[in-house]
Amino acid sequence: MLAIASSFRRVPGYLDTPSYGLPARATATALRRAARAWEQGTLDPVALDASVERMRAAFAALVGAHADDIALAASTSQVVGMVAASLPDGARVVVAAGDFASVPLPFVHDPRLTVDVVPLDRIVAETARGADLVAVSAVQSADGAVVDLAALAMAARVAGARTLIDVSHAAGWMPVAARDFDVVVASAYKWLGTPRGIALAAVRPEASWVRPVSASWYGSDAPWESLYGHDVALSARARRLDISPPWQLVEAGAAALELLASQGVEAIGRHSVGLANEFRARVGLPAGASPIVAVDGVDPAALARAGVKAAARGGRARLGFYVYNDERDVEAAASAIRVAQAA
């Protein structure tokens, strides 16, 4: 049992973290407090800058970056779109077949770019052949397949390829060396447990080629002195790419990220992948490397009738095991699967 497990309200059978993570009690409390302050007119946007900085620091700790590397966004696709717009005309981009659509679509729909789609198990080899940019999810949303990030980083370094890694299904449980890549982005409402509407990106200092396509006043080092005019100087750090914060969400976001950072991704990964592999063993699947499990031939509606919350993805039931799950959830899911397969 993880030390932080008691920080969450137990929801028996909840195995849908790949769709959205459950909030810790402190996260939900912070969200309610912000809503109350908003309603009462006491919300202080300037004071909430401290919560944004806490998010930068905690996310950096979770993905192996520095706080100055972290940019604030609203969604993964926003960051991917900014990267796409920063590439030169005619750039060749390599993406993985079947990846979550927000990763390839900004490149596919930019007529200036050439996009090559390759099987996931060929992504490292294709990177080694050379490309202007490689964009891929570290862990696949549909089935939990894991990319060898160390091998990908090495191939990109040797080939001189720029890199964008979506860690929306990796950050929080899988160690990531963000400074091995140009841009590492996560939608934080999944495994990071924040409210929806927060995304964070680690942008290494050498990636100055990423342009602030959505430049805002908050991209300045002194944002509250940069509200007006055309001559605002943007930061030299990653915050040059910031959007303005969703004020009602940032305190809750900081609480969520700090809780995970206090436990550490290695311990969270051992717990979460361990539960997933216990489940795999009980339903006759081989061990895997991620907490996401896809099961063929099972309707998630049948699992729901047994009190197990999962999702339907690619014609399969998708389950995800995380910090607030335990052996009771493994047994409930395995029993529900066996019943569904026997029906």
UniProtKB/TrEMBL annotation:
The keyword Transferase applies. Keywords: Aminotransferase, Transferase. Pfam families: Aminotran_5. SUPFAM superfamilies: PLP-dependent transferases. GO terms for molecular function: transaminase activity. Gene3D superfamilies: Aspartate Aminotransferase, domain 1, Type I PLP-dependent aspartate aminotransferase-like (Major domain). It comes from Demequina litoralis. It comes from the Bacteria. Residues 50-278 form the Aminotransferase class V domain. InterPro entries: Aminotrans_V_dom, PyrdxlP-dep_Trfase, PyrdxlP-dep_Trfase_major, PyrdxlP-dep_Trfase_small. This is Aminotransferase class V-fold PLP-dependent enzyme. The keyword Metal-binding does not apply.
